[in-house]
Amino acid sequence: MPRISQNTRHRIAEQVLGLLLEKYPVPLTTREVAHELVRDKEFVRSLLEMLRSHGMVRTFSKRTGAAYSRWLKWQLTDEGKKRLEAA
What is the pLDDT of residues 9-36, one digit of tens each? Predict the structure, then answer.
């Protein structure tokens, strides 16, 4: 599998943010984001984790029971939404 350059990763991360902004305030699962962008789920999850470390997105778990790491939903943070709308 070929390596993806940092420039390409940032451009795809911008697409992820655009999709989350378009669907805001509805949180999307990793699978839904990957399906919309026609990308691998693990790759999209790594991008979403990077965006979470930058404070752009937040996660939601299932409401009841144990915390299932497979069922995370992602949504823009208020700060991330403001940054995107200002750009």
Answer: 999 999 999 999 999 989 999 999 999 9
| Residue 86 DSSP code | H
Q: Which domains does the chain have, with CATH numbers?
A: 6-86 (1.10.10.10)
- Contacts within 8 Å (CB) and 24+ apart, 48-57: 48/16, 48/74, 50/13, 51/13, 51/16, 51/17, 51/80, 55/79, 55/80, 56/17, 56/80, 56/83, 57/17, 57/20
This prediction has a pTM of 0.85
Other Cβ atoms within 10 Å of 46 Cβ, number: 13
* CB-based contact 10:17 (threshold 8 Å): no
